[in-house]
């Protein structure tokens, strides 16, 4: 079935380090891809999205590129901040479907 | 309020009891979703409402789970004869346009944490 696999956490980095959180997907159709973020004490919120191959989603300094050939949507940020500490979820939805399928989440800790 | 509101934020109950969890979506949002998040897992889809009707309830795990949205706004997730395996965080999300889920623009509440002893 359709699914999302992302790297296990927790991931611990120092401030200003480069971040990559890997995400790969399996889909029967042609999905749209997302990264959601959950900050401590807050609800899940959409971070960025890409709806077709080679699209790059970006927001708050984070980027992810939809790679159809490798079925991947890795999240990157060039210089992380303490305020980026959160749980990050990779997700997909298929055209015509209303539900979003989430990965297990990756907890990120940024040390000052 | 400005966001999706869920009550209670925490609920502890005993095995076999009945539980109701409430979701108050963002005003004017016609689509409403329930998800369940178990420890160490991502959110798992339960049910989707478009207006008052359940457009997709394929994620409900069994007939002990039921959800309603009688006036197209507030929704209640009902769990009968709770089991320890029902312990999880139950998330509600809403969106402005039906089917907006296929573009990812869902707005989530903070969830209701259910613990079944």
Secondary structure elements and their pairing?
The complex is a heterodimer of chains A (112) and B (117).
Chain A: E1 3-6, E2 11-14, E3 19-21, E4 23-26, E5 31-38, E6 45-50, E7 56-59, E8 62-65, E9 75-77, E10 86-94, E11 101-102, E12 106-111
Parallel strand pairs in A: 2-12
Antiparallel strand pairs in A: 1-4, 3-9, 5-6, 5-10, 7-8, 8-9, 10-11, 10-12
Chain B: E1 5-7, E2 10-13, E3 19-24, E4 31-37, E5 44-50, E6 53-56, E7 65-68, E8 75-79, E9 88-95, E10 107-108, E11 112-116
Parallel strand pairs in B: 2-11
Antiparallel strand pairs in B: 1-3, 3-8, 4-5, 4-9, 5-6, 7-8, 9-10, 9-11
**Could you give a short account of the major beta sheet of chain A?**
6 strands, mixed
Principal-axes geometry of chain B comes out as: globular
The total beta strand count of chain A reads: 12
Question: End-to-end distance of chain A, in Å?
Answer: 41 Å
Percent of residues of chain B in beta strands?
Answer: over 45%
- Spell the H/E element sequence of chain A: EEEEEEEEEEEE
What is the structural class of chain A? Answer: mainly beta
Helix content of chain A: under 10%
Unreliable stretches of chain A (pLDDT < 50, length at least 5) are none
Count of beta strands of chain B: 11
- The whole-angstrom Rg of chain A is 13 Å
What kind of sheet is the major sheet of chain B? 7 strands, mixed
Report the total helices of chain B: 0
What's the total helix number of chain A? 0
Please tell me the overall pLDDT of chain B.
91
Distance between the termini of chain B: 32 Å
